[in-house]
Amino acid sequence: MSQHDRVAFLDGVRTPFGRAGEKGMYANTRSDDLAVKAMIGMLERNPQLPGERVDDVAIAATTQQGDQGLTLGRTSAILAGLPLSVPGYAIDRMCAGAMTAVTTVSGAVSMGMYDFAIAGGVEHMGRHPMGFDADPNPRFVAEKLVEADALNMGATAERLHDRFPHLTKQRADAYAMASQLKVEQAYQDGNIQQDLIPVAIKSGAGWGLATEDEGRRPETNLEGLAGLKTPFRPHGRVTAGNSSPLTDGAAVSLIGSESAARAIGIKPKMHLVSFAFAGVAPEVMGIGPIPSTEKALAKAGLSISDIGLFELNEAFAVQVLSLLDHFGIADDDARVNPYGGAIALGHPLAASGVRLMIQLARQFEQRPDVRYGLTAMCVGLGQGGSVIWENPHFDGKRK
Ligand SMILES: CC(C)(COP(=O)(O)OP(=O)(O)OC[C@H]1O[C@@H](n2cnc3c(N)ncnc32)[C@H](O)[C@@H]1OP(=O)(O)O)[C@@H](O)C(=O)NCCC(=O)NCCS
């Protein structure tokens, strides 16, 4: 990588996301096979890239055991048919696993150590329920380092409603409905499908093919949302309708130096400008992307008004609203999640960071008037992650 070279997001694909659980389309599919399938799909889409040029493979998962164990980056690289000379490793930052895979390999590209790397994540929440078999140190609670329910993500979202009473359930529901409708529109416009790698699936009815995200609820309306149970607290505000559903899926990206990519005929889809992670109190983990975004903006020398497109992970509607509110952005601002988000598509924890990037890259292509975009997400145990990207299609004329 030369001195003036840039780190680029060269491509990204994902499996269709499935509803977690016995009735979900991936109930009989191994988790690592989802990552492998996505990786094969991406390599097939980029035949110019010789496998042996991949310097590393970083694949994230939150629960690293069973079919998500054994150093996923290495196992999935072998299973995807990459040469045995290509190394790989596993990575974990819970929901920001894939985002951290991308930023970690980007650092190596930036130092000139890697020309190309594959970075992504997978989570089969049906096979690996959140927190399953975890053994948190008793000191956390005994020494009051965190509240006992800080690992219950829904409870942390309820606390955000407590902390910001003006972020009402009605606003969360309206935001959630809009997400469902935007995803439906994005499907109708063909904006989602082109980055999905179909996956063969087996059910009682025999073999089939997963080609679309399974959890979508385009029929969602405000009356239906208003009547849903609040599973995390009696008379609470967080429901199945304004939360991301439990989901199975994988997403992978190809990260590389701009000059190495151009030399083999691959054009950057996004340039990495800056990134940051930040910690907050675990009890209100949903506000994590606020300080991480502030840090990433400061590192880039940009302000929030420079960001023309936002891809925010919708772990919970209230958590996205807290970020928008902080930065003075309207709940229905057209720059935010134009194709909808995780409330409708699902949030397979360690895969979602790259899903955000895939959508931002697609939007950059359609929006030469936008120069900068942000991908950001909250993380369990109180963190946020933000990556700022520059649009290589920017035509110098801002609308
Ligand atoms: C909220 C949660 C507990 C709900 O789980 P669930 O009860 O299995 O969810 P379901 O999909 O069965 O939905 C529950 C009910 O709401 C209904 N529902 C869900 N979304 C709806 C919508 N948009 N409109 C109308 N009804 C809806 C379902 O039809 C179902 O109704 P039923 O009980 O009559 O069958 C679960 O999705 C969850 O834990 N989400 C958060 C995941 C998380 O923490 N991720 C990490 C973030 S950091």
Comma- or semicolon-separated keywords:
12 helices, 21% strand, 399 residues, two-stranded antiparallel ribbon, binds coenzyme A, globular, alpha+beta, 10-stranded mixed beta sheet
Describe the structure.
The chain is an alpha+beta fold and 399 residues long. Helices cover 31% and strands 21% of the residues. The protein has helices spanning 31-45, 72-79, 97-110, 139-142, 153-163, 169-188, 222-226, 258-263, 289-300, 317-326, 342-345, 352-366; strands spanning 7-14, 18-19, 54-60, 89-91, 116-124, 199-203, 206-210, 247-257, 270-279, 307-312, 372-379, 383-390. Strands 1, 2, 3, 4, 5, 8, 9, 10, 11 and 12 form a ten-stranded mixed sheet that branches. A two-stranded antiparallel sheet has the order 6-7. Strand 6 (199-203) and strand 7 (206-210) form a beta hairpin. The mean pLDDT is 97. The structure holds coenzyme A. Coenzyme A (COA) binds at residues 95, 153-154, 217, 220, 224-225, 228, 231, 240-241, 243-246, 315, 347, 380. Residues 95, 153-154, 217, 220, 224-225, 228, 231, 240-241, 243-246, 315, 347, 380 line the site of coenzyme A.
What's a concise summary of this model?
The protein is built from 12 helices and 12 strands. It is of the alpha+beta class.
**Strand coverage percent:** 15-25%
How would you spell out the order of helices and strands?
A: EEHEHEHEHHHEEHEHEHEHHHEE
Helix content: 25-40%
Q: Major β-sheet, in short?
A: 10 strands, mixed
The total beta strand count reads 12
In this entry the ligands are: coenzyme A
Task: Please tell me how large the radius of gyration is.
Answer: 20 Å
Question: Mean pLDDT, nearest integer?
Answer: 97
Distance between the amino and carboxyl termini: 34 Å
Global outline: globular
Judged by helices, strands and strand pairing, the structural class is alpha+beta
Total helix count? Answer: 12
